[in-house]
Amino acid sequence: GNSVTQMEGPVTLSEEAFLTINCTYTATGYPSLFWYVQYPGEGLQLLLKATKADDKGSNKGFEATYRKETTSFHLEKGSVQVSDSAVYFCALSPHNAGNNRKLIWGLGTSLAVNP
Amino acid sequence: DAGVIQSPRHEVTEMGQEVTLRCKPISGHDYLFWYRQTMMRGLELLIYFNNNVPIDDSGMPEDRFSAKMPNASFSTLKIQPSEPRDSAVYFCASTEATGTNTQYFGPGTRLTVL
Fold this sequence. Notes:
Chain A is mostly beta strands. In chain A, about 0% of the residues lie in helices and about 50% in strands. Chain A has no helices and twelve strands. In chain A, the strands form three sheets. In chain A, strands 2, 5, 6, 10, 11 and 12 form a six-stranded mixed beta sheet that branches. The mean pLDDT of chain B is about 95. Helix content of chain B is about 0%, strand content about 55%. The radius of gyration of chain B is 13 Å and the shape is globular. The chains are: A mainly beta, B mainly beta. The interface of A and B includes residues 34, 103 and 105 of A.
């Protein structure tokens, strides 16, 4: 079946450090892949997405590349800020899902950035 | 666009009371989802609708929970009777029938059952 595995948190970094949050998936075909971010006290919001192999999603300095060969979609940012402190969720939408619009979610990774 | 709207934002009630959470999806979105988020169990999908019809309610925890979507712009999630273990943040999300299945979330309702 379909599944998403994220690295466990919490992750604690100093401001301007490099960030990587690992995400790997299990799915048939070519799912769409997403990173969502949840800031404290808010709902989840889409950070970036990629819909086919080798696509790179990017937003707000974050990037993730859809790697079919390693079934991965790791989130990276070159220099984190205190304002990036949040919980990050990796998710996938199955290939040819038809009427099935359920997203498969990772458990979330909490990031704390210290000044 | 106003985004997904949820009300109330906070609800505090006593055990045994009925609780009704409300959601207005983004106009034109055909799918609506109800999620629950807790520290212990993370993010759980409770139920989702397509064109106002429930498609999958396998995540609804028990008969105390019910959800309706009487029209394309309104949905409710009802808990009757409520219990302390229902305390959580409840999110509503919506998405279009076509495209990449990007779900748009509301701000959530924080429910506390005493």
